Amino acid sequence: MRRGIVCICLSAFGFALMAMFVRMADVVGEPLPAIQKAFFRNLVAVALALPAFLRMRRRDPALRRGGPMSAGDWLALVLRALCGTLGVFTNFYAISVIPLCDAMALNKTAPFFTLLACWVFLGERMRPRQLLCVMGAFLGAMLVVKPGFSGGLTLPSLVGLSSGAFAGFAYALLHRLGRRGVSGTFIVLFFSVFSCLACLPFIAVGSKPMNGAQLAALGGAGAGAALGQFGITWAYRFAEPRQIAVYDYSGLIFVSAFGFMAFGQVPDAWSCLGFATIVSMAVLLYARERAA
User: Any idea where the domains of the chain sit in the sequence?
Assistant: First the structure.
């Protein structure tokens, strides 16, 4: 469980870095299409994951034969890549058309969908205290982002909500693949290549020229995304989602810290209260799990 907590917090840190650099890419030049940013985000992840996978493949004879995966494992791997790719696309789209805080709030429904998917498809039930801690952390997240949802339930809002659903189901599939012993490095590489290929048709018809600063920012976004992907992949290999999903909300604390350092955004009193709530729920859940 401790390993799972460390990995999911590293993942939250990586995805917070990614969000900062994605936002920075629009600050240092002309705003870019969401799918173009997603392509470069995943391209850097491929460049980082491929050498690691090749090194591991040389050491592991099973991987040279294609890996010890069944047809069900391959299906889960493809579904994980599809859900993850759709989650990236819908999240980047929501960030570009609705207020950032609203998009963040909608995307942070992912832990709920993860727990729901693990319950429905994997048969993993939650104890009441685990559910209460996740709900408490979600309320703390709402204090941080303070969503307005101006204009009511619009199509962009539904797309933003779907990003949380896609991410949640992708994380549940990660947990299933981890339990089956599928290589975490191979999962990250497969997802990154799949996402890049999915972006190519859109890049061919709608890409924009980028300056050096934007390329550097997207390189940083890709590095942060790679850390996030490796972290979340290993987190759900070490522990069950019901034990560690609440720690995913630490990403809001990291995002707020990066917002202050990079853009001078100062958290208000409500945000600080939200941080305290998230940390309290994480500590409470950890203490309860250790006691059990």
Answer: 2-291
Q: What is the mean pLDDT of residues 31-46?
A: 89
Looking at the predicted structure, is the pLDDT value of residue 27 above 70? yes
| DSSP result, the chain | -HHHHHHHHHHHHHHHHHHHHHHHHHHSSS---HHHHHHHHHHHHHHHHHHHHHHHHHH-HHHHTT-S--HHHHHHHHHHHHHHHHHHHHHHHHHHHS-HHHHHHHHTTHHHHHHHHHHHHH--PPPHHHHHHHHHHHHHHHHHH----TTSS-HHHHHHHHHHHHHHHHHHHHHHHHHTT--HHHHHHHHHHHHHHHHHHHHHHH-----HHHHHHHHHHHHHHHHHHHHHHHHHHHS-HHHHGGGGGHHHHHHHHHHHHHH-PPP-HHHHHHHHHHHHHHHHHHHHHHH-
Q: Give the chain's mean pLDDT.
A: 83
The pTM of the full predicted model, rounded to 2 decimals, is 0.83
pLDDT of 221-243, one tens digit each?
999 999 999 999 899 888 888 78
Alpha carbon 147 to its chain's center: 20
Q: How far apart are CA 236 and CA 115, in angstroms?
A: 12
